[in-house]
Amino acid sequence: MNTPAKVATFALGLAAAFGAALGVGAAVGPVDDPAPAMAGHGGDAHGEETTSAEALLPAGLAVSTDGFTLALDSAEAPAGPATPVSFRVLDADGSAVTDFAVAHEQRLHLIAVRRDLSGYQHVHPTLAADGTWTTSLSLTPGSWRLIADSEPEGAEGSVVLGADLAVPGEHSPVPLPAPAHTAEVDGYTVALSGDLTAGQETELTLTVSRDGVPVTDLQPYLGAAGHLVVLRAGDLGYLHVHPVDEGASGPDVAFATTAPAAGTYRLFLDFRHGDVVRTAEFTVEATRG
Ligand SMILES: [Cu+2]
């Protein structure tokens, strides 16, 4: 792409982002002229600029956002197959939140993953009356990231908070597996079709089979035929993923998501069959939009 075309595309993206943020669509100005959109960077428009920039950031990168903070009871935990971990979600006053809305059948979804993207776990901690969440995690030595996805009372939707958990001990980082469109787990084969494209919502379809036979009786898990989590390699940014058809039972399960930028992402599909939840993992490269 030549430079003027790049600039025009950038301006178009910017205008679209501001249009969405302002809710004014084409009223922003001619899309081939960057000036009207750039004018938004002036003093009064600061809030809009922030909204636009945040729209390009994945969730889960901050320990505090939207007035809420993820407070781990300890920033360090021992390695082990069932290490207890506890934490609280604090509100703007520093008080532990005790009331959470249910989303995907749970009041809080906790993702735990080592910073090299190994050891992925998706668990549902238990909430005590004082606002303390507890669970147990299978931890190996290394630096872990905990991502809590919930809707605390007073929030206007889902709040995703992330915190680091250090697990002492010797370890070697696990290299990220190469990009692939199929994953094997426990005798199941999961095929991935669709791509990730920076800045564009795309549909990803995962197809589950066993011994070459499509699985058509996937059991509902968290209110859908599967639950997909997408994390960005490099910073573990967390993408929101929406099931396209919550009533699907397989073999296809479709999701829609938007990669914020080109780069490498790791996909984790949790699906339930024969009363067991399994996770299929894929490395996917998001292309430039
Ligand atoms: Cu969950």
Features:
289 residues, mainly beta, Immunoglobulin-like, 2 domains, six-stranded antiparallel sheet, 3 helices, 21 strands, binds copper (II) ion
CATH superfamily of the largest domain: Macroglobulin (MG2) domain
Hetero groups: copper (II) ion
Poorly predicted runs: 1-54
Q: Roughly how much helix do the residues carry, as a percent range?
A: 10-25%
Structural class: mainly beta
CATH topology of the largest domain: Immunoglobulin-like
Largest sheet: 6 strands, antiparallel
Tell me, what's the shape? globular
N-C termini distance: 12 Å
- Topology, number of strands: 21
- Strand % is 35-45%
Helix count, DSSP H or I runs of 4 or more residues = 3
User: What's the SSE pattern?
Assistant: HHHEEEEEEEEEEEEEEEEEEEEE
| Rg (C-alpha, Å) | 21 Å
Q: Which whole number gives the mean pLDDT?
A: 84
Question: From the 3D coordinates, which CATH architecture of the largest domain would you assign?
Answer: Sandwich
Q: Supply the number of structural domains.
A: 2
Supply the CATH class of the largest domain.
Mainly Beta
